[in-house]
């Protein structure tokens, strides 16, 4: 039996919106998948945005458009007009120029595939520069290629790169560190009154040999 109170409640109840009914009908898995799909789109747009920023900054620089607005330098324009510091300014430009040379597919109107986040691009740039070295061993090159594949797929962890570097992956940096130690020993030795002059000359010769080796490696890259 229907009471007046029941009828009044039914009349006063507002029908749910179409969106509310659709949301209520979804399972947690369906809702999670939908949100994940939207998030992926937003994240990709954010990654594309830093490339667009770099491209526009390059245009302002190359066409001297900053001067048209009364700025003497690009840095002054970025600081005053965009509140963009010098470090960030050149990071955007460096990344854009590197992408234009090595990954132009990322600059297409509708780029496909994964684009690394701005904070991760620096590691990828470093890896690809290392791969150009002519003094890499076969094993080091294989390991770097694996790290590059991870970076391009968005799976590279900071610990992966740190571990590779700690294991001596960077020969040039190893020489630089060793050179610093030899120089320190030379300095301490020369402070000793009974240090043979011949020993100091050997230190000087070793320092010169290491410096030359580093210069050759740098020229070959």
Average pLDDT, rounded to a whole number, is 80
SS class = mainly alpha
Provide the low-confidence segments as ranges. Answer: none
Net shape = extended
Sheet having the most strands? none
Q: How many structural domains in the coordinates? A: 3
Approximately what portion of the residues adopt beta-strand conformation?
under 5%
Q: Considering DSSP H and I runs of 4 or more, what fraction of the residues is helical?
A: over 70%
- Following the backbone from N to C, one meets helices and strands in this order, namely HHHHHHHHHHH
If helices are DSSP runs of H or I spanning 4 or more residues, what is the number of helices?
11
Rg on CA atoms, Å: 30 Å
Number of strands: 0
Describe this structure in words.
With 221 residues, this protein is an all-alpha fold. Helix content is 74%, strand content 0%. The protein has 11 helices and no strands. Helix 7 (118-130) packs antiparallel against helix 8 (138-152) and helix 10 (171-190) packs antiparallel against helix 11. It is extended and about 95 Å long. It starts with a helix and ends with a helix. The model has no long low-confidence stretch (mean pLDDT 80).
